Fold this protein.
Amino acid sequence: MPKVKIPRKSTTIDMTAMCDVAFLLLSFFILATKQKPPEVLSVTPPNSVSAKAAPDKSILITLTKDGKAFLMLGDETKKADILNNINLTKGLNLSPAELKKWEKAPFVGMPLSQIKSSLAMTTEIPANQLPGIPTDSTKNEMIDWMKSVTNVYAGSDQRKLQEMLLVKGDNDALYPTFKNIKEAFKKNEIYKFRIVTNGESVPVGSELYLNPPKAN
């Protein structure tokens, strides 16, 4: 009896559909992934052994070594309300179109008196050329900004607001500037905030190394 021969089929697989799916997924993840907010200016904060991560939605005050202060409103759900509040309380007289344009700015880094004229400009001023928010003892506009922040977050859990308030200062920043930031918090009855530092390992043999904190 003759041996039955099984016909051989081609092992070639059409990968066109698979490639289409792969590129669709890649495009989805690229568009849907939340990017890290841009840094205002490069600063070198002090080191610490704390490993607690900063929240994604944060209100970040950056202090440069030359004494400039910048504010980043990272909670996009409240940003427009904060800008609208300070526009009303400080009489900036910004139009809805100007407020919409201001909302797109990644950070604030100039006196309130210069906001309207800056929004009329066609080109954006580089961060290193901005004067920063005034925070000296005679004119501390960070008090006004924190007032608008507390106005918008009034009625919500204040502990969550305190967790969102971050101060990132350069290691060479002078203490008087930092003191004026604390004064802005205090004037608005904000008594807790967090300082951004560079993480480092616990020194071997230190008290913290020998007696690490217990997990909650």
Q: What stands out?
A: The chain has a mean pLDDT of 81. The first strand starts at residue 47 and ends at 48. Helices lie at 16-32, 76-89, 96-103, 115-119, 142-153, 158-164, 175-187, 207-210. The CA atoms of residues 56 and 79 lie 14 Å apart.
